[in-house]
Specification:
2 domains, 312 residues, alpha+beta, Aminoglycoside 3'-phosphotransferase, Chain: A, domain 2, 14% strand, Phosphorylase Kinase, domain 1, three-stranded antiparallel beta sheet, six-stranded antiparallel beta sheet
Length: 312
Amino acid sequence: MERKCGEGHSSSERQLETMLSMVPAWQGKDIYYRPIFGGFSNSNWHIRIGGERQTFFLKMPGPGTEKFIDRSASLEAGRRAHLLGIGPRTYDDLSDRGVEICDFVERSRPCTTRDFHSAEIRTRTIKLFRTFNDSAPLGLTKTLFDMIEEHIIQLRELGGVFSHDFPAIHAQYLSARAALEASGLDIVPCYNDPAPANFLLTEDGRIVIVDLEYASNNDRCCDLATWCGEMVLSDAMQDEAIECYFGRVEASIRARMLVYQMLGDLKWSLWCMIQNITSSIDFDFYKYGAWKQMRLRSTLRNPYWDRALMSL
């Protein structure tokens, strides 16, 4: 339900109204807002200014998100995506508060996993990845290894419970990391968040990338690999994705994709277990994290796993 600024009842609405009153361009104007549901970490809002055509998306940082997210890096990545023509325009009015504002992408909807089983939509999205990956380095370098190590420390500090087989999984992680580092890392700007809803499909068929709060410099292949894994692409679809991105399909690239998909599942399973402790959002983080762990175990049991580590 849309409310006018000043009509807020809940603590989250009153907190939002306080932030809205601090935007210079909106002062003295009628401001209307409504919640946007579906976020895993933050409080998201649609903002409308009386008498103006452009509407806005505003993200209020969720409690505990500072454990994962560098807001200044997120804002830099959002500005980069807009300059590259692949993301909405961003505004810095509340950046000192960690609040992100960007243009609301009208006449669009969040993508679903099924959307990316369309070759046309898949190709458009891969070109978007390539555009971002080929841009100048970001200020923050944070590889998937850094994220995993950070989450392990955080989960231990919170007193979280690791799976019974975590020592074995961790040993495989160390082997995979050593193999990847020995093969050489191509460090470029990466999106690092492959959730399908972070890609908007407009009525005219464009793909727009949003929510760049996890973006950092990382190994190039990580973005494509974790995205293909999240979209549950068939082997044939993944080969098409590899060829679209790299211009060729080679055993070493397939191996790198498999290894990064396992590591991506490890990273997000740890993230889920942390969120299960700290988040107030109504979402079953434990179930999602358990599913990620089940899939990474399946990858480790893949007869090709050991060969993949030697094929990088």
